[in-house]
Amino acid sequence: MEEKKVYVILLNYNGWEDTIECLESVLKNDYGNYQIVVVDNLSPNNSMDKILSWAKGEQEVIYPVNTHFKELSQPFISKPVPYVYYNKEDINKSTISEKEQALDNPIVFIQSGNNGGFAAGNNLGIEYAQIKDDFDQVWLLNTDTVIERNALSSILNYSNTNNLGLTSSKLIYYHTPEKIQAYGGSINKFFATASHIMDEKDIEKKLDYIVGASFLINKKVIDKIGLLPEDYFLYYEETDYCFNARNNGFKLGIDVNSIVYHKEGGSTKDPNRNVDSEFIELLKLGNRIKFHKKYLGGGVGLYLGFLIVIFNRIKRGQLSRVGKILKILFNK
């Protein structure tokens, strides 16, 4: 049976070291018919230059300290690798045809020109795939991941066998591989709080959304409900997309045999503690309000949930955050 094409879309922001390790890992997967699209959200640290240098064979992989997974990215792919580079405004049928006509399945690098957030960056990769119109699925894969050799072939087989609209992998922490990060997630319908599913046995009864680190989307979903919602910037956009897909008759699923190792959270945590930075917490709370009002009615649970958050911040002595949280709550 002929393998159906899938686009593997990687969104980079300031994480060129992770992206290069991820690329080497993806290039060793055992599925044949795929094409990689790397979108950079205008990283201020010149990430795209570093990634292009890797494609040319001029930049080596830089591993995190005490990595467990060098074997998933080695031996390194021969360089230079065939690639094309686009600015956002170049993404059209004629330019793509002209640039790629003499190349066999190049890696596609796209500079978005701005940091519009998770959804906007990934949507640019999806729009590229839509112009080519030669695919069955797109796989949004976080750049701070590495994958087992069969991760892509397994998730595609699981999705197709079970007629799923959206599918994710078993996510394991990269730095502590004895720990599960998530088998998807569930939403408290009263408070609109999100929590990861940690036990495989709970997937069927609790699964409300799949985690964006490994987010396989069937083309039928894109054709019916469109691209990811861009008004969240970061957090809750994949949850919104899952609820929208389910409301339109599509099923979600988790392939526990598709293994993805995720570094997770390095750029969004307070550098002095393993907690969300103030910016990220406030962003999550604002997006929680938006999501609750859109799908859960924006009722009393939303406000009770915020009272709990405020009480906890007062207990921690984070009084400056309390005023900002109240401002978000009453301005939304």
Question: Overview of this structure, please?
Answer:
The chain has helices spanning 16-26, 47-56, 93-100, 118-132, 151-161, 203-206, 219-225, 237-247, 278-296, 300-315, 319-331; strands spanning 6-12, 34-40, 83-87, 107-111, 137-141, 145-147, 166-173, 180-182, 185-187, 194-196, 214-218, 252-262. By secondary structure, it is an alpha/beta fold. The strands form two sheets. Strands 1, 2, 3, 4, 5, 6, 7, 8, 11 and 12 form a ten-stranded mixed sheet that branches. A two-stranded antiparallel sheet has the order 9-10. The chain is built from eleven helices and twelve strands. Helix 1 (16-26) links the parallel strand 1 (6-12) and strand 2 (34-40).
Give the SSE map.
Layout: E1 6-12, H1 16-26, E2 34-40, H2 47-56, E3 83-87, H3 93-100, E4 107-111, H4 118-132, E5 137-141, E6 145-147, H5 151-161, E7 166-173, E8 180-182, E9 185-187, E10 194-196, H6 203-206, E11 214-218, H7 219-225, H8 237-247, E12 252-262, H9 278-296, H10 300-315, H11 319-331
Parallel strand pairs: 1-2, 1-5, 2-4, 3-4, 7-12
Antiparallel strand pairs: 5-11, 6-12, 7-8, 7-11, 9-10
